[in-house]
Amino acid sequence: MINAGVSRVVVALADPDPKVAGQGIDRLRAAGIDVEVGCRADDVARQLAPYLHHRSTGRPFVVLKLASTLDGRTAGPDGTSQWITGDAARTDAHRLRADSDAILVGAGTVRADNPALTVRLPESERSTDDTEPLRVVLGAAPADAALQPCLEVSGDLGVILDDLGARGVLQLMVEGGATVAKAFHEAGLVDRYVLYMAPAIFGGDDALSLFSGKGAPTLGDLWRGRIVDVARVGDDLRLEIEA
Q1: Which one-letter DSSP state was computed for residue 132?
Q2: pTM of the prediction?
Q3: What residue ranges do the domains of the chain occupy?
């Protein structure tokens, strides 16, 4: 741009990567080019959230994917859960998988559902450059599990995120059950919640909930997030929530 004689450059965000540290902007300004920083910064920051988060923390951006009925249930009293949401919502969730570098589930989910955790998209959305996300199991996966080969991890979730970040994972999609969801939530490690909600109701107390264990004891102890996007996906709703 300097050699081309550009007089003005508009930049949404400065790259937080310490290897860069705004050097490009400084070079442009030193060459007498007018550089405006911050144009539509919020919009761009949302699009680049995984990259920005990884560069500033060294950890992947954690997306917790959830699916439930209107009354917050994920499975019936008998454990059946396939499928609460419709085809369009499930396809949309596969797009979320495709955007992620790794997918994490708990060993309990592997034993109960034996998921392959592959990306399955319509032919029109596939590319020859597509690669499958790294499959991560919190705990030990059976040797004959459909998601093999996979990376088995255990211990402190923060340490696990540090390791995944060092492996170059920018976005981690957590698809585990209620126990894994609660563990990441209570540790404050979820950066974005993506909830697919079906217009259906189990009713009663026996169906399984989004999060396991005891919840907040009083209204004042509720965790409250901020809805950043709402969309209709087929017959279901997709809510994106951040802290």
Answers
A1: P
A2: 0.87
A3: 8-41, 48-242
